[in-house]
Amino acid sequence: MMTLGAVADDLTGAIDLATNLANRGFRTIVTIGVPTSEPRPDTDAIVAALKTRAIDPDDAVADSLHAVDALKRLGCRRFYVKYCSTFDSTARGNIGPISEAVCARTGAGSAVVVPAFPAAGRTVYQGRLFVHDKLLHESHMKDHPLNPMRESDVISLLQEQSSRPVGAVRHATVHAGPARIRAALDAETASGACLVVVDAVTNDDLESIARATDNDVVVTGGSGLATGLIGPHIDDPRNVRSSGQAGPPRAIIIGSVSETSRTQTEHARTHLPWRELDVTAVLNQPERHVAAVADWAQEQWNNEPARPVLVSSGQVHSHDPRVSGVVEQANAALAVELARRGARQFIIGGGETSGAVVNALGIRQLAIGPELAPGVAWSSGPAGPDSPVGDATYDVVLKSGNFGDPDLFTAAWDQIT
């Protein structure tokens, strides 16, 4: 029986959360956008993948509440507001406005704020967010093109976005266990706080926080908090995962220009056929260039049908929003052209690129499959009736730019065959 519903501020974040929920025994599906149909009867959790991270706060709140209302109609009674573990936001939002609005809509008096995900190197201590051994404002996130993070104090960041006081629970209290955490949360709520930032530096901390909040209507955080939840199938979480439903040909399309994605691409290009999108050609003759790259991929598959092809987007567009948008759409168009040539298994690198590709292929729902790394998993789903390719089922990895080991693009295929 489904009871848990989540709203995620982007697609790869939704996959990240769904992966951790599956690990904890929840049979989980991801919907692309607001859920519009009844899930399978054996579904335990639904994660609605929205695109609310960098849009106007009023629009972000409206989209999130639309999703929450849909999840309530489907039977959800607990809600998880998912955002990035690096707290990607600005002084206007959107984490604070969305979280407060969801609390108000569901009748929750308050909610924890837990961006920590120790398995991915994100921890919170004394209210300050660390990325591995660096404070957030000293990490790679300080120069993020959409949400440059110049402050590491989560309480200060959140207070700028929030209409009510922001509370805090420090690590000494977290370390003392669930009962102490619960008492501290109740005290913060009684003092007027709606959102309460909770320290976490280990997985044990996350489990304690999850136990302390297991009766809360709303929780908020990165995907790390889900590692402390207990799902209906916790004793055998492998049974909740979808197996691969498609087959070759295979393609890897990388739109992310993060340091992690660059390392993964460099590793993969020494093992796989590789081509880089020509940004000048994309700007001047996008359809012709996409067709040429797709023809090149077909030639590679003619020789080795099961061998993945790798296409990356280079660095030139990373800080130019206009060019970045054109390249993103070119990557989506390329995925469609490759699908028309038979490709049914894709690895997509980058949150914006993942969203563009999934929408272009007409995929509306995904079931979580084998995990590849913290926050990264295979997923499978059919194309909807509006797919330009027609009736098809896809296996996809939709990866945040900053996640995964260096050999992810080559090793991932072993988990789906």
UniProtKB/TrEMBL annotation:
What keywords is this UniProt entry annotated with? ATP-binding, Carbohydrate metabolism, Kinase, Nucleotide-binding, Transferase
Catalytic reaction equation(s)? 3-dehydro-D-erythronate + ATP = 3-dehydro-4-O-phospho-D-erythronate + ADP + H(+); 3-dehydro-L-erythronate + ATP = 3-dehydro-4-O-phospho-L-erythronate + ADP + H(+)
State if Cell cycle is listed as a keyword: no
Statement: the UniProt record of this protein carries the keyword Kinase? yes
Stated EC number for the protein is: 2.7.1.217
Ranges of residues in domain Four-carbon acid sugar kinase nucleotide binding: 251-409
Any one Gene Ontology MF annotation carried by this entry is:
kinase activity
Question: What does the record give as the function of this protein?
Answer: Catalyzes the ATP-dependent phosphorylation of 3-oxo-tetronate to 3-oxo-tetronate 4-phosphate.
- The name this protein goes by in its record: 3-oxo-tetronate kinase
